Amino acid sequence: MDVRARTARLRGVTTLEDRLAALGDAARALAGALELDTTLDTIVRSAVEVTGARYAALGVLGEDDHIARFFHHGVDEDTVRRIGHYPTGKGLLGVLIRDPQTLRLDDLSSHPAASGFPPDHPAMGSFLGTSVTSHGRTFGNLYLTDKPGGFDAVDEELIEVLAAQAGAAIETATLSQRLRELAVADERERISRELHDGVIQWLFSIGMGLEAARTLLPEEASDIDERLGSAVDGLDGAIRELRAAIFRLRPQQAASLGLSAGVTELAREYEVNALIRPSLEVPPDIDAEVPIDVVADALQVVRESLSNAARHAQASSVHIRAVREGARLELAVRDDGVGFEADDRSRVGHGLANMRERADALGADLTIDSQPGAGTAVRLSIPIEQEASTP
Ligand SMILES: Nc1ncnc2c1ncn2[C@@H]1O[C@H](COP(=O)(O)OP(=O)(O)OP(=O)(O)O)[C@@H](O)[C@H]1O
Ligand SMILES: [Mg+2]
User: pLDDT at position 250, please?
Assistant: First the structure.
């Protein structure tokens, strides 16, 4: 917007040319926006430019047709903080949600559904709202308030055009986000395959070459034999690190499978990477007893524990247990490996810290039992709702 237009805007006057120019700017900005939140911000700002309204907002509908996210323009952050919450979709906004048609009012408080403003909310008079459709369903509502002199039929036309552009832009942004996620997942899969089939096999064959060379050494060359031996140990260490890295790279699909299938999948991945099959103690009916919102965090703790076992333990057996005991889910991952000084806080890396965070988020108790030479057991005890099994 140039200076002249901006001055006119401040006086509450905008020419049709200015408004059409603003609509053109919006179209250009939206065509280039590939990130969803930026796109939604642009839509709200454009709505103000196009109509000359003082306030604009976009309420994004969640699963239950309530407003799940709210993008706004015109109300300063202090006021937003004092109001304390975004609209939830009652009152007038509820009308727009239930009946997604354009609604234009000279005074929004005169509408029968108007439920009034919360304390600290600025007064708003004129109102223009419409719905934004994307992927064939109502994505949210775009609405404007407080245009000096009120909204007219042209505003109504323009906002509908803007809403249509918005719908297309939202579709583009969500699809491109999906594509980026897919690209990352593909890339992870590709890298882990290359590491597993390429680099690890290569290191293996170098190690075998060195072992073969050792058998050819004459008795008296014990210092060379020692050096070759420590090179082989180094290679084994590198292979262990790579296997653990592959294990972490695998896209995290386990949580969508549920607890028992998720644990089985993690155990299978562990076997591929560490060449030991963990034994499982997971009753098949456990899924019915574990709330779905616990599964992802619980599986992440199993994953971290297995990753540590693969990387540090040199275990010959690993056991995973997930059983319900009363109102708790008891989860344990045990290995018979080298163990470590579990009380030594300086040892804590990302893995153990992450487990602790997940446990706190679940309100669960986490214990790590380990001693050098005595293996490691990670136990997580998660409170779950008592099933109403007794009358
Ligand atoms: N199952 C295990 N067996 C032997 N040592 C372990 C085991 N689990 C953890 N440790 C020891 O505890 C340390 C901390 O583990 P933690 O998972 O926090 O970090 P990390 O595995 O070293 O690195 P990362 O941040 O990548 O997870 C490890 O470095 C290792 O010495
Ligand atoms: Mg770790």
Answer: 63
165 vs 171: CA distance, rounded Å: 10
Q: Is 342 in the pocket of ligand 1 (CB under 6 A)?
A: no
* Residue 207 and residue 234 in contact, taking contact as beta carbons nearer than 8 Å: no
Model confidence at 218: pLDDT above 60: yes
% of the chain at pLDDT higher than 70:
92
User: Is the pTM above the cut of 0.85?
Assistant: no
Indicate if ligand 1 lies below 6 Å from the C-beta of 309: yes
CA nearest neighbour of 226 among 234, 295, 31, 4? 234
Q: Which residues surround ligand 2, an ion (CB under 5 A)?
A: 308, 351
Q: What's the pLDDT score for residue 253?
A: 54
**What does pLDDT average to over the chain?**
86
In this structure, which residue's CA is closest to atom 18 in ligand 1? Answer: 349
Ligand 1 in reach of 162 Cβ (< 6 A):
no
- 60-119 tens-digit pLDDT: 998 888 899 999 999 999 999 999 888 888 888 889 888 888 999 999 999 999 888 888
CA distance 124 to 144: 10
- List the domains of the chain with CATH numbers: 3-179 (3.30.450.40), 254-391 (3.30.565.10)
